[in-house]
Amino acid sequence: MNRKLFTSDSKSSHFLLGFDKKAALAIQNHFRLSNYQMLVLCWLKGLWTGILISLALHYFISH
To answer: What is the rounded CA–CA span in Å between residue 17 and residue 62?
Structure first.
């Protein structure tokens, strides 16, 4: 009896990748951003997320 531990459902794994790419292209086209501007926007989003997480952790640890 062969049992597969991992199944590769290609539709569900590529759905999120395709959705992310479509969302990024929609934002880029809507605001007329270049690839470099999208890179800077993603970097700033990551920086802002890191700052918010560090502030939340600081609040919970110090109080």
So the answer is: 38
